[in-house]
Specification:
Elements (H helix, E strand, L loop, with lengths): L3 E3 L7 H9 L4 H14 L12 H4 L7 E8 L2 E8 L1 H6 L21 H11 L3 E3 L10 E11 L6 E12 L5 H4 L3
Antiparallel strand pairs: 1-4, 2-3, 2-6, 4-5, 5-6
């Protein structure tokens, strides 16, 4: 099964079709995309200034990650990690650059996905295997969304993330092909 799908946010079936390809079902991902898409207001991407997640989506805030994107040289930095996400990762990454973290650095599977979202300015759905401290989790469902930034040479990205427990996995996914 694929682990990532990039889609056109102007395609009415793009989110649904992408989630189906990855076997995703999280309502949190749908809500996060709807929030981001509403803030676009006809533009390719919304600006970071268009968001106030604390006031507008307090229930989604624990499931959000904000990344800074430095374009020259290219690198990504964890700017904000929601409380639910932070407690399910192996450590707190706030303030760290991808280039300094082996699993995120160039050559990893994570780096090129963030690079594509920045270059193409289109959302990406991802459903990788969970790697972290909780044995009950088997996968992660997330959506990576591009944001505009006011500074030249910089961008931002927003991610909504849901952790999938073993008990949520369907019987079909548990039976080897």
């Amino acid at each position: 099964m694929q682990q990532a799908v990039q889609f056109d946010p102007d395609d009415p079936g793009g989110l649904r079709d992408g989630m189906a390809k990855l076997g995703m079902a999280s309502p949190l991902i749908v809500a996060g995309f709807a929030y981001w898409n509403d803030r676009r207001r006809g533009r390719t991407v919304p600006d970071r200034a268009d968001f106030d997640p604390v006031m507008e989506i307090p229930k989604l805030l624990p499931h959000i990650i904000l990344f800074d994107v430095r374009r020259d040289p290219l690198d990504f930095r964890f700017r904000l990690v929601g409380s639910h996400v932070r407690q399910n990762l192996s450590r707190d990454y706030v303030g760290e650059w991808f280039s300094a973290i082996p699993n995120y650095a160039p050559g990893s599977t994570i780096w090129p996905r963030h690079q594509l979202v920045d270059e193409l300015q289109k959302p990406m759905l991802q459903r990788p295997t969970y790697v972290g401290p909780h044995k009950d989790f088997v996968a992660v469902e997330n959506i990576l969304l591009p944001l505009g930034a006011p500074q030249a040479g910089w961008g931002m990205q927003m991610m909504f993330i849901d952790f999938i427990r073993r008990s949520q996995v369907t019987l079909a996914e548990r039976i080897p092909g």
